[in-house]
Amino acid sequence: MFRRREPVPFAFLAEADRFRSNVTPPPRQRLSVSQIAGRWLLGLTLVAGLVGSLVLGMPALSTPSGSGTQQSQASQGR
Known about the structure:
This protein is mostly helical.
């Protein structure tokens, strides 16, 4: 009914851990000053946009206080 599976040899995985390549990857290129400045400018633009949207959106999220509950004239039956 149930057949036992044969064990799978995982020796190739152990060999892969020991394998070291003699080919070295090329060195990373250094960013130029203009590329670094561009990345900073992009980051500052994103942060300024988020802060600006928060500043502009906060008044819309706040509820008016001190005026009590306001009812429209339609709800008063006029």
